[in-house]
Write a structure and sequence with these properties.
Layout lengths: L1 H27 L8 H23 L4 H4 L4 H29 L14 H22 L7 H26 L6 H31 L2 E9 L3 E8 L12 E6 L9 E4 L10 E6 L3 H6 L7 E8 L12 E6 L4 H13 L6 E7 L8 H10 L2 E7 L9 E2 L4 H7 L9 E6 L2 H14 L6 E3 L6
Parallel strand pairs: 7-8, 7-11, 8-9, 9-10, 11-12
Antiparallel strand pairs: 1-2, 1-6, 2-5, 3-4, 3-6
Helix pairs in contact: 1-2, 2-4, 2-7, 4-5, 5-6, 6-7
Length: 442
Protein backbone atom coordinates (compact mmCIF):
# COMPACT_ATOMS: atom_id res chain seq x y z
CA UNK A 1 0.00 0.00 0.00
CA UNK A 2 2.83 2.40 0.88
CA UNK A 3 4.53 1.68 -2.44
CA UNK A 4 1.29 2.39 -4.31
CA UNK A 5 0.85 5.65 -2.38
CA UNK A 6 4.38 6.83 -3.23
CA UNK A 7 3.92 5.89 -6.88
CA UNK A 8 0.61 7.74 -6.95
CA UNK A 9 2.24 10.91 -5.59
CA UNK A 10 5.02 10.74 -8.19
CA UNK A 11 2.53 10.20 -11.03
CA UNK A 12 0.39 13.13 -9.85
CA UNK A 13 3.44 15.41 -9.76
CA UNK A 14 4.43 14.36 -13.31
CA UNK A 15 0.87 14.92 -14.50
CA UNK A 16 0.78 18.40 -12.95
CA UNK A 17 4.11 19.30 -14.56
CA UNK A 18 2.98 18.13 -18.00
CA UNK A 19 -0.22 20.17 -17.67
CA UNK A 20 1.51 23.37 -16.57
CA UNK A 21 4.62 23.16 -18.79
CA UNK A 22 2.98 25.04 -21.70
CA UNK A 23 2.02 27.86 -19.33
CA UNK A 24 5.52 27.98 -17.82
CA UNK A 25 7.08 28.20 -21.27
CA UNK A 26 4.62 30.95 -22.19
CA UNK A 27 5.69 32.93 -19.11
CA UNK A 28 9.42 32.32 -19.58
CA UNK A 29 9.47 32.91 -23.30
CA UNK A 30 10.30 36.25 -24.94
CA UNK A 31 7.42 38.67 -24.45
CA UNK A 32 6.10 41.22 -26.87
CA UNK A 33 5.92 44.45 -24.88
CA UNK A 34 3.09 45.74 -27.03
CA UNK A 35 0.88 42.75 -26.33
CA UNK A 36 -1.88 43.14 -23.75
CA UNK A 37 -1.56 40.85 -20.67
CA UNK A 38 -5.12 39.55 -21.09
CA UNK A 39 -4.06 38.07 -24.44
CA UNK A 40 -1.40 35.97 -22.73
CA UNK A 41 -3.94 34.95 -20.07
CA UNK A 42 -6.31 33.83 -22.82
CA UNK A 43 -3.61 31.80 -24.53
CA UNK A 44 -2.42 30.34 -21.22
CA UNK A 45 -5.92 29.04 -20.42
CA UNK A 46 -6.11 27.38 -23.82
CA UNK A 47 -2.65 25.85 -23.45
CA UNK A 48 -3.47 24.29 -20.06
CA UNK A 49 -6.79 22.92 -21.32
CA UNK A 50 -5.19 21.44 -24.43
CA UNK A 51 -2.41 19.80 -22.39
CA UNK A 52 -5.08 18.29 -20.12
CA UNK A 53 -6.95 16.87 -23.09
CA UNK A 54 -3.80 15.38 -24.62
CA UNK A 55 -2.87 13.64 -21.37
CA UNK A 56 -6.29 11.97 -21.24
CA UNK A 57 -5.10 9.64 -23.99
CA UNK A 58 -2.49 8.40 -21.52
CA UNK A 59 -4.95 8.15 -18.63
CA UNK A 60 -7.41 6.03 -20.64
CA UNK A 61 -4.82 3.81 -22.34
CA UNK A 62 -5.16 1.22 -19.54
CA UNK A 63 -1.43 1.15 -18.90
CA UNK A 64 -1.50 -1.01 -15.78
CA UNK A 65 1.55 0.45 -13.98
CA UNK A 66 -0.04 3.91 -14.28
CA UNK A 67 -3.50 2.75 -13.20
CA UNK A 68 -2.55 0.42 -10.37
CA UNK A 69 -1.90 3.06 -7.66
CA UNK A 70 -5.34 4.59 -8.20
CA UNK A 71 -7.58 1.90 -9.67
CA UNK A 72 -9.06 2.07 -13.16
CA UNK A 73 -12.48 3.12 -11.86
CA UNK A 74 -10.95 6.18 -10.17
CA UNK A 75 -8.83 6.95 -13.25
CA UNK A 76 -11.91 7.00 -15.46
CA UNK A 77 -13.79 9.13 -12.95
CA UNK A 78 -10.86 11.57 -13.02
CA UNK A 79 -10.89 11.43 -16.83
CA UNK A 80 -14.51 12.51 -16.90
CA UNK A 81 -14.10 15.33 -14.40
CA UNK A 82 -10.84 16.65 -15.84
CA UNK A 83 -12.40 16.57 -19.31
CA UNK A 84 -15.02 19.05 -18.13
CA UNK A 85 -12.33 21.24 -16.55
CA UNK A 86 -10.29 21.16 -19.77
CA UNK A 87 -13.38 22.08 -21.76
CA UNK A 88 -14.00 25.14 -19.57
CA UNK A 89 -10.35 26.25 -19.88
CA UNK A 90 -10.24 25.83 -23.66
CA UNK A 91 -13.63 27.49 -24.06
CA UNK A 92 -12.42 30.40 -21.91
CA UNK A 93 -9.69 31.07 -24.49
CA UNK A 94 -11.98 32.48 -27.25
CA UNK A 95 -14.35 34.06 -24.73
CA UNK A 96 -11.47 36.03 -23.22
CA UNK A 97 -10.41 37.14 -26.71
CA UNK A 98 -13.92 38.42 -27.42
CA UNK A 99 -13.85 40.40 -24.17
CA UNK A 100 -10.47 41.82 -25.16
CA UNK A 101 -11.59 42.94 -28.60
CA UNK A 102 -15.01 42.34 -30.14
CA UNK A 103 -13.39 42.28 -33.59
CA UNK A 104 -12.27 38.72 -32.82
CA UNK A 105 -15.93 37.64 -33.13
CA UNK A 106 -15.66 37.84 -36.92
CA UNK A 107 -13.29 34.86 -36.81
CA UNK A 108 -16.26 32.65 -35.94
CA UNK A 109 -17.31 32.78 -39.60
CA UNK A 110 -15.68 29.66 -41.05
CA UNK A 111 -16.17 30.93 -44.62
CA UNK A 112 -14.32 34.22 -44.26
CA UNK A 113 -11.98 33.70 -41.30
CA UNK A 114 -8.26 33.04 -41.87
CA UNK A 115 -7.22 29.41 -41.69
CA UNK A 116 -5.64 29.78 -38.27
CA UNK A 117 -8.99 30.88 -36.87
CA UNK A 118 -10.91 28.19 -38.75
CA UNK A 119 -8.83 25.46 -37.14
CA UNK A 120 -9.36 27.06 -33.73
CA UNK A 121 -13.13 27.25 -34.14
CA UNK A 122 -13.33 23.66 -35.38
CA UNK A 123 -11.25 22.53 -32.39
CA UNK A 124 -13.68 24.18 -29.96
CA UNK A 125 -16.71 22.72 -31.78
CA UNK A 126 -15.19 19.24 -31.63
CA UNK A 127 -14.47 19.68 -27.94
CA UNK A 128 -18.10 20.66 -27.33
CA UNK A 129 -19.14 17.47 -29.13
CA UNK A 130 -16.77 15.35 -27.04
CA UNK A 131 -18.01 16.72 -23.72
CA UNK A 132 -21.72 16.81 -24.55
CA UNK A 133 -21.57 13.28 -25.97
CA UNK A 134 -20.00 11.95 -22.77
CA UNK A 135 -22.38 13.83 -20.47
CA UNK A 136 -25.62 13.01 -22.29
CA UNK A 137 -24.92 9.60 -23.87
CA UNK A 138 -27.02 7.70 -21.34
CA UNK A 139 -29.83 10.28 -21.33
CA UNK A 140 -30.23 10.13 -25.10
CA UNK A 141 -29.63 6.34 -25.15
CA UNK A 142 -26.72 6.53 -27.56
CA UNK A 143 -25.28 2.99 -28.00
CA UNK A 144 -22.07 2.60 -26.00
CA UNK A 145 -20.00 1.21 -28.90
CA UNK A 146 -21.15 3.93 -31.32
CA UNK A 147 -20.40 6.62 -28.76
CA UNK A 148 -17.00 5.19 -27.87
CA UNK A 149 -15.81 5.15 -31.48
CA UNK A 150 -16.90 8.71 -32.19
CA UNK A 151 -15.71 9.96 -28.81
CA UNK A 152 -12.19 8.84 -29.73
CA UNK A 153 -12.39 10.20 -33.28
CA UNK A 154 -13.61 13.63 -32.19
CA UNK A 155 -11.09 13.88 -29.35
CA UNK A 156 -8.21 13.03 -31.68
CA UNK A 157 -9.42 15.47 -34.33
CA UNK A 158 -9.89 18.17 -31.70
CA UNK A 159 -6.29 17.96 -30.51
CA UNK A 160 -4.96 17.80 -34.08
CA UNK A 161 -6.88 20.91 -35.15
CA UNK A 162 -5.95 22.75 -31.94
CA UNK A 163 -2.22 22.08 -32.42
CA UNK A 164 -2.52 23.14 -36.08
CA UNK A 165 -4.19 26.34 -34.87
CA UNK A 166 -1.24 27.01 -32.53
CA UNK A 167 1.33 26.56 -35.30
CA UNK A 168 -0.62 28.69 -37.80
CA UNK A 169 -0.94 31.53 -35.27
CA UNK A 170 2.82 31.25 -34.81
CA UNK A 171 3.27 33.80 -32.02
CA UNK A 172 3.78 31.15 -29.36
CA UNK A 173 5.93 28.72 -31.34
CA UNK A 174 8.42 31.25 -32.64
CA UNK A 175 11.40 29.48 -31.07
CA UNK A 176 12.64 25.91 -31.72
CA UNK A 177 12.16 24.79 -28.11
CA UNK A 178 8.56 26.04 -28.14
CA UNK A 179 7.88 24.11 -31.33
CA UNK A 180 9.48 21.06 -29.75
CA UNK A 181 7.00 21.24 -26.86
CA UNK A 182 3.92 20.93 -29.05
CA UNK A 183 5.60 18.44 -31.35
CA UNK A 184 6.28 16.40 -28.20
CA UNK A 185 2.63 16.48 -27.18
CA UNK A 186 1.66 15.49 -30.72
CA UNK A 187 4.10 12.57 -30.66
CA UNK A 188 2.64 11.51 -27.30
CA UNK A 189 -0.84 11.53 -28.80
CA UNK A 190 0.23 9.52 -31.85
CA UNK A 191 2.14 7.09 -29.63
CA UNK A 192 -0.91 6.46 -27.46
CA UNK A 193 -3.07 5.92 -30.53
CA UNK A 194 -0.60 3.37 -31.91
CA UNK A 195 -0.46 1.64 -28.54
CA UNK A 196 -4.21 1.49 -27.88
CA UNK A 197 -5.36 0.88 -31.47
CA UNK A 198 -2.65 -1.48 -32.75
CA UNK A 199 -0.20 -2.83 -30.19
CA UNK A 200 -2.59 -3.64 -27.37
CA UNK A 201 -5.30 -5.27 -29.56
CA UNK A 202 -2.59 -7.46 -31.13
CA UNK A 203 -1.56 -8.57 -27.65
CA UNK A 204 -5.17 -9.43 -26.79
CA UNK A 205 -5.45 -11.52 -29.95
CA UNK A 206 -2.30 -13.41 -28.99
CA UNK A 207 -3.74 -14.03 -25.51
CA UNK A 208 -7.31 -14.92 -26.40
CA UNK A 209 -9.69 -17.10 -24.35
CA UNK A 210 -12.14 -19.87 -25.16
CA UNK A 211 -15.61 -20.32 -23.72
CA UNK A 212 -15.53 -23.50 -21.62
CA UNK A 213 -19.15 -23.59 -20.50
CA UNK A 214 -22.28 -21.48 -20.11
CA UNK A 215 -24.97 -21.50 -17.45
CA UNK A 216 -28.23 -19.70 -16.82
CA UNK A 217 -28.67 -18.30 -13.31
CA UNK A 218 -31.64 -16.86 -11.46
CA UNK A 219 -32.44 -13.23 -12.17
CA UNK A 220 -31.85 -13.42 -15.94
CA UNK A 221 -28.10 -13.78 -15.36
CA UNK A 222 -25.80 -15.76 -17.65
CA UNK A 223 -22.47 -17.17 -16.40
CA UNK A 224 -19.57 -17.64 -18.82
CA UNK A 225 -16.66 -19.84 -17.82
CA UNK A 226 -13.55 -19.10 -19.90
CA UNK A 227 -10.12 -20.69 -20.19
CA UNK A 228 -6.89 -19.31 -21.70
CA UNK A 229 -6.13 -20.47 -25.23
CA UNK A 230 -2.52 -21.62 -25.21
CA UNK A 231 -1.22 -19.19 -22.58
CA UNK A 232 -1.09 -18.85 -18.81
CA UNK A 233 -4.10 -16.53 -18.53
CA UNK A 234 -3.97 -13.78 -15.93
CA UNK A 235 -4.06 -13.44 -12.18
CA UNK A 236 -6.63 -11.16 -10.58
CA UNK A 237 -7.70 -9.99 -7.16
CA UNK A 238 -11.20 -10.85 -5.90
CA UNK A 239 -13.55 -8.03 -6.90
CA UNK A 240 -11.77 -6.80 -10.03
CA UNK A 241 -13.28 -6.51 -13.50
CA UNK A 242 -12.23 -6.88 -17.14
CA UNK A 243 -13.39 -5.84 -20.60
CA UNK A 244 -14.93 -8.57 -22.74
CA UNK A 245 -15.03 -8.66 -26.55
CA UNK A 246 -17.03 -11.39 -28.28
CA UNK A 247 -17.66 -12.28 -31.94
CA UNK A 248 -15.28 -9.60 -33.21
CA UNK A 249 -11.61 -8.69 -32.81
CA UNK A 250 -10.22 -6.27 -30.19
CA UNK A 251 -9.81 -3.75 -33.02
CA UNK A 252 -13.59 -3.35 -33.28
CA UNK A 253 -14.24 -1.33 -30.10
CA UNK A 254 -17.15 -3.58 -29.14
CA UNK A 255 -15.83 -4.39 -25.67
CA UNK A 256 -17.88 -4.13 -22.49
CA UNK A 257 -16.74 -4.17 -18.82
CA UNK A 258 -17.91 -6.93 -16.49
CA UNK A 259 -16.88 -7.96 -12.99
CA UNK A 260 -15.07 -11.27 -12.56
CA UNK A 261 -17.23 -13.56 -10.43
CA UNK A 262 -14.97 -16.56 -9.82
CA UNK A 263 -12.39 -17.30 -7.15
CA UNK A 264 -9.02 -15.64 -7.57
CA UNK A 265 -7.44 -18.91 -6.42
CA UNK A 266 -8.51 -20.70 -9.60
CA UNK A 267 -5.82 -19.99 -12.20
CA UNK A 268 -7.11 -22.47 -14.78
CA UNK A 269 -10.34 -20.65 -15.63
CA UNK A 270 -12.44 -17.66 -14.62
CA UNK A 271 -16.08 -16.64 -14.77
CA UNK A 272 -18.17 -13.61 -15.60
CA UNK A 273 -21.83 -13.56 -14.59
CA UNK A 274 -23.67 -11.11 -16.84
CA UNK A 275 -27.20 -9.80 -16.43
CA UNK A 276 -29.37 -9.22 -19.50
CA UNK A 277 -29.58 -5.42 -19.61
CA UNK A 278 -29.32 -4.63 -23.32
CA UNK A 279 -28.49 -5.85 -26.85
CA UNK A 280 -24.89 -6.87 -26.07
CA UNK A 281 -25.69 -8.67 -22.81
CA UNK A 282 -28.69 -10.34 -24.42
CA UNK A 283 -26.57 -11.63 -27.26
CA UNK A 284 -23.94 -12.89 -24.80
CA UNK A 285 -26.35 -15.72 -24.03
CA UNK A 286 -25.83 -17.11 -27.54
CA UNK A 287 -22.16 -17.90 -26.88
CA UNK A 288 -21.36 -21.60 -26.87
CA UNK A 289 -18.45 -23.73 -25.68
CA UNK A 290 -15.38 -23.41 -27.88
CA UNK A 291 -16.05 -19.88 -29.13
CA UNK A 292 -13.16 -17.43 -28.94
CA UNK A 293 -13.40 -14.26 -26.85
CA UNK A 294 -10.95 -11.53 -25.89
CA UNK A 295 -10.49 -10.33 -22.34
CA UNK A 296 -8.66 -7.18 -21.29
CA UNK A 297 -7.93 -7.20 -17.59
CA UNK A 298 -7.85 -7.33 -14.71
CA UNK A 299 -8.58 -3.79 -13.55
CA UNK A 300 -10.07 -1.99 -10.56
CA UNK A 301 -9.18 -0.95 -7.03
CA UNK A 302 -12.38 -2.52 -5.67
CA UNK A 303 -10.83 -5.73 -4.47
CA UNK A 304 -10.46 -7.59 -1.22
CA UNK A 305 -6.68 -7.86 -1.32
CA UNK A 306 -6.25 -4.09 -1.46
CA UNK A 307 -7.42 -3.82 2.16
CA UNK A 308 -5.61 -6.57 4.11
CA UNK A 309 -6.03 -4.63 7.36
CA UNK A 310 -9.78 -5.36 7.42
CA UNK A 311 -10.43 -7.73 10.34
CA UNK A 312 -14.20 -7.90 9.75
CA UNK A 313 -16.10 -7.53 6.50
CA UNK A 314 -19.47 -6.00 5.67
CA UNK A 315 -20.54 -6.66 2.08
CA UNK A 316 -23.51 -4.86 0.51
CA UNK A 317 -24.33 -6.00 -3.04
CA UNK A 318 -27.38 -4.84 -4.94
CA UNK A 319 -28.71 -6.91 -7.84
CA UNK A 320 -25.98 -7.88 -10.31
CA UNK A 321 -23.52 -6.00 -8.08
CA UNK A 322 -23.24 -9.35 -6.31
CA UNK A 323 -20.76 -10.65 -8.94
CA UNK A 324 -17.57 -9.05 -7.50
CA UNK A 325 -18.84 -9.92 -4.00
CA UNK A 326 -19.18 -13.57 -5.10
CA UNK A 327 -15.59 -13.45 -6.27
CA UNK A 328 -14.58 -12.29 -2.80
CA UNK A 329 -16.65 -14.94 -1.02
CA UNK A 330 -15.48 -17.76 -3.29
CA UNK A 331 -11.88 -16.68 -2.87
CA UNK A 332 -12.20 -16.53 0.91
CA UNK A 333 -13.70 -20.04 0.92
CA UNK A 334 -10.80 -21.38 -1.16
CA UNK A 335 -8.31 -19.65 1.15
CA UNK A 336 -10.05 -20.91 4.28
CA UNK A 337 -10.31 -17.27 5.38
CA UNK A 338 -12.02 -17.20 8.79
CA UNK A 339 -12.71 -13.48 9.08
CA UNK A 340 -16.36 -12.79 10.02
CA UNK A 341 -18.56 -11.51 7.18
CA UNK A 342 -21.95 -9.76 7.30
CA UNK A 343 -23.66 -9.83 3.91
CA UNK A 344 -26.58 -7.45 3.23
CA UNK A 345 -27.93 -8.63 -0.14
CA UNK A 346 -30.42 -6.17 -1.68
CA UNK A 347 -32.83 -7.20 -4.45
CA UNK A 348 -36.12 -6.17 -5.96
CA UNK A 349 -37.78 -9.62 -5.81
CA UNK A 350 -36.91 -12.86 -4.01
CA UNK A 351 -37.41 -15.01 -7.13
CA UNK A 352 -34.71 -13.10 -9.00
CA UNK A 353 -32.00 -13.32 -6.32
CA UNK A 354 -28.89 -14.68 -8.01
CA UNK A 355 -26.63 -17.28 -6.33
CA UNK A 356 -28.83 -17.72 -3.23
CA UNK A 357 -28.31 -21.52 -3.25
CA UNK A 358 -24.52 -21.12 -3.44
CA UNK A 359 -24.57 -18.49 -0.70
CA UNK A 360 -26.17 -21.10 1.58
CA UNK A 361 -23.25 -23.42 0.81
CA UNK A 362 -20.77 -20.62 1.46
CA UNK A 363 -22.36 -19.99 4.86
CA UNK A 364 -21.25 -23.51 5.81
CA UNK A 365 -17.65 -22.84 4.75
CA UNK A 366 -17.24 -19.28 5.98
CA UNK A 367 -18.04 -17.23 9.06
CA UNK A 368 -20.82 -15.66 7.00
CA UNK A 369 -24.24 -14.30 7.96
CA UNK A 370 -26.57 -13.19 5.17
CA UNK A 371 -29.39 -10.65 5.50
CA UNK A 372 -31.67 -10.29 2.48
CA UNK A 373 -33.59 -7.07 1.92
CA UNK A 374 -36.31 -7.43 -0.72
CA UNK A 375 -37.97 -4.37 -2.21
CA UNK A 376 -41.11 -6.25 -3.32
CA UNK A 377 -41.25 -9.35 -1.10
CA UNK A 378 -43.66 -12.28 -1.54
CA UNK A 379 -46.69 -12.43 0.73
CA UNK A 380 -45.14 -15.11 2.94
CA UNK A 381 -41.79 -13.29 3.28
CA UNK A 382 -40.40 -13.27 6.80
CA UNK A 383 -37.23 -11.28 6.18
CA UNK A 384 -36.44 -7.60 5.74
CA UNK A 385 -38.42 -5.69 3.12
CA UNK A 386 -38.02 -2.36 1.38
CA UNK A 387 -34.65 -0.69 1.03
CA UNK A 388 -31.60 -1.21 3.21
CA UNK A 389 -31.60 1.52 5.84
CA UNK A 390 -29.86 2.42 9.09
CA UNK A 391 -32.42 0.55 11.18
CA UNK A 392 -31.71 -2.73 9.39
CA UNK A 393 -27.97 -2.09 9.55
CA UNK A 394 -28.11 -1.48 13.30
CA UNK A 395 -30.37 -4.49 13.87
CA UNK A 396 -27.93 -7.02 12.43
CA UNK A 397 -24.54 -5.42 12.97
CA UNK A 398 -22.76 -6.95 16.00
CA UNK A 399 -21.59 -4.64 18.74
CA UNK A 400 -18.15 -3.24 18.12
CA UNK A 401 -18.19 -3.71 14.34
CA UNK A 402 -18.75 -0.04 13.50
CA UNK A 403 -15.15 0.84 14.24
CA UNK A 404 -11.73 0.70 12.69
CA UNK A 405 -10.93 -2.79 11.57
CA UNK A 406 -14.17 -3.30 9.64
CA UNK A 407 -14.08 -2.98 5.85
CA UNK A 408 -17.31 -2.28 3.96
CA UNK A 409 -17.63 -3.35 0.31
CA UNK A 410 -20.53 -1.78 -1.60
CA UNK A 411 -21.52 -2.56 -5.19
CA UNK A 412 -24.76 -2.18 -7.13
CA UNK A 413 -26.80 0.30 -9.18
CA UNK A 414 -25.59 3.89 -8.73
CA UNK A 415 -28.76 5.21 -6.98
CA UNK A 416 -28.70 2.28 -4.56
CA UNK A 417 -25.04 2.86 -3.70
CA UNK A 418 -25.59 6.56 -3.05
CA UNK A 419 -28.53 5.82 -0.75
CA UNK A 420 -26.82 2.96 1.11
CA UNK A 421 -23.60 4.92 1.58
CA UNK A 422 -25.58 7.65 3.37
CA UNK A 423 -27.11 5.02 5.67
CA UNK A 424 -23.70 3.47 6.37
CA UNK A 425 -22.29 6.86 7.32
CA UNK A 426 -25.34 7.57 9.44
CA UNK A 427 -24.80 4.46 11.58
CA UNK A 428 -21.18 5.42 12.20
CA UNK A 429 -18.97 3.92 9.49
CA UNK A 430 -16.31 6.32 8.22
CA UNK A 431 -15.77 7.21 4.58
CA UNK A 432 -12.38 5.47 4.74
CA UNK A 433 -14.03 2.19 5.69
CA UNK A 434 -16.42 2.17 2.73
CA UNK A 435 -15.07 0.79 -0.55
CA UNK A 436 -17.34 0.94 -3.58
CA UNK A 437 -17.18 0.08 -7.25
CA UNK A 438 -18.43 2.84 -9.51
CA UNK A 439 -16.81 2.21 -12.88
CA UNK A 440 -18.69 4.38 -15.35
CA UNK A 441 -16.85 4.87 -18.62
CA UNK A 442 -19.19 7.25 -20.35
Amino acid sequence: MKKNKNTAIILMIINALLITTPLIILILGPNNEGRQPILDISVGLGFIGLAMMTLQFVNTARIKPLNKPFGTDLVYHYHRQIGIAAFLLVFAHPITLFLLDTRYVRFLNLFTAPWRARFGVVAVLLLIGVVLGAEYRARFKIPYTFWKIWHGIMATAMIATAVTHIFLVGNYVNLPWKKALWIGYSVLLVGMLIYTRIMYPLRLIKHSFLVKSTKMEAGDVFTLTMVPDGHAGFRFHPGQFAWLTAWKTPFSDTEHPFSIASSAENSESFQMSIKNLGPFTQRIQSLTAGERVFVDGPYGSFNLDRYPEAQRLVMVPGGIGVTPIMSMLRTMADRADKRPILLFYCNREWETVTFKEEIIELERKLDLKTVYTIEKPPTDWGGESGFLNRDILKKYTPEGWIANGTGVFLCGPAPMMVAVEKELLAVGYSQQQIHSERYSFA
